[in-house]
Amino acid sequence: MSKLALGTVQFGTDYGINSGVKVDPKEVTNIINFARNNGISLLDTAQLYGSSEKVLGDVNTQDFDIVTKSRGFDNEVITEKEASFVIADLHKSLSLLKQKSLYAFLVHHGEDLLKPGGEMIFNQLQSLKEQGLANKIGVSAYIDNQLIEIIDRFDFDIIQLPMNILDSRLIDNGLLNKIFSKGIEIHTRSVFLQGLLLM
């Protein structure tokens, strides 16, 4: 797997401080081919990224490792029925992406795991991993006290976190070492602050 990943939120929705415009489908093909030709083999997407998953499925990305994420859970208590939505989410993602399995499937909002019943979401993720539908399971989170609780309570393979040259909290507060010591794979996002650091 490549050390660089391509974030695809702008393939499916208007996003970013730089231009905030959804990428034209023809340009998506050019970007994917550029990534492929330059050794980038990991794509990051999510159900909450508009049509991003469908766009990726339509441009022949079967040779890429793909990380996607579940829906967000609005209710303050996670019921067994709501937790089961994770299974439906993964199957929907596989269909849109035209993939048989994923490199990783993440909980999109880490705080959902800490709600009453949140452990049922984790249990569903484990089941999907055991079925071979996702090679790894994880969570997208922010650097705060919730992250510490998530790390202590759940045995995840991957944690996706914000980190860039202006934000070194992950290093300064010792969390990077704690995550690393548990053998958890770290994926950083917002490396260029949605393009702000490139302006």
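That was protein one. Protein two is written in the same sequence-then-structure order:
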Amino acid sequence: MDIIPIAASLLAGLSTWAGTLPFMLRRQFSDDAMDTMGGFSAGIMLAETAFRLLIPSIRIGGHLTAALWLMADDIFLHIIARFIPHFNPVAGLEGPESKVF
């Protein structure tokens, strides 16, 4: 039996647990800390988009296919932002009226 997948899975689980530890020990964070954590998370997601999704799609489907799907994704996100209510920290409430917000 190969131990590498088991060790990798255990490491991933322990890393996830360690990442939640600050939130279990402390309930309130300053606005600066929340901004820093949000920015870090956004940076990770942008890096994943570029390196794990966009580059392989260009390699597999070509530049035109990747560009068309990227534009389709952008249009889809604009539609979601227009029709689903959400909160923007700068602009406030956006989207249609809702009983939730």
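The chain has three helices and two strands. Keep this in mind for the problem set.
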